[in-house]
Write a structure and sequence with these properties.
With 136 residues, the chain is mostly beta strands. The protein has two domains: 4-48, no CATH class; 64-135, no CATH class. It has helices at residues 114-117, 129-135; strands spanning 4-9, 14-19, 22-24, 46-48, 64-69, 80-90, 93-100, 118-123.
Length: 136
């Protein structure tokens, strides 16, 4: 299990990462952050990596914007959905959900597989324009 998190720092306008007890300022976790700079990573808005690859082999994080090629019972209007990866705690279980922003159905949990049907196209921090473009 990969226990990796990212945190958006609005002041620096960049992500900081946490992996295996160390803080990093790059996604590949090569350049670690000095202890005096660790405050740049905020656990308050930390987003966990999900161990499910998209069609390009990338791992999504909570807060990523994804394109889902799913199809909804032959209705071509909903063959593609744009969704935000979110973490849901529902009664006694916790799971990742794709919250659909493109159509009225809301959640996109049926008829797709992560590896074949999901593509990461951005995230809510650096690509907010995707939320506007696809919600029209």
């Amino acid at each position: 299990m990969i226990n990796k998190y990212r945190s958006w720092n609005a002041e620096c306008k960049q992500f900081f990462y946490f992996l295996d007890g160390l803080y990093y300022d790059d996604e590949k976790c090569i350049q670690y952050v000095l202890p005096t700079e660790q405050y740049r990573f905020s656990w308050k808005n930390a987003e966990q990596l999900i161990e499910l690859n998209d069609i390009n082999g990338k791992y999504p994080y909570k807060g990523d914007i994804v394109r889902v090629d799913a199809g909804y019972g032959g209705d071509n209007r909903y063959d593609e959905a744009i969704a935000i990866v979110e973490f849901v705690i529902d009664f006694d279980e916790a799971y990742y959900n794709l919250n659909n922003i493109l159509c009225e159905y809301g959640s996109v949990m049926q008829d797709f597989t992560w590896k074949n049907d999901v593509e990461i196209i951005g995230n809510i921090h650096t690509d907010p324009e995707l939320l506007i473009v696809y919600s029209k």
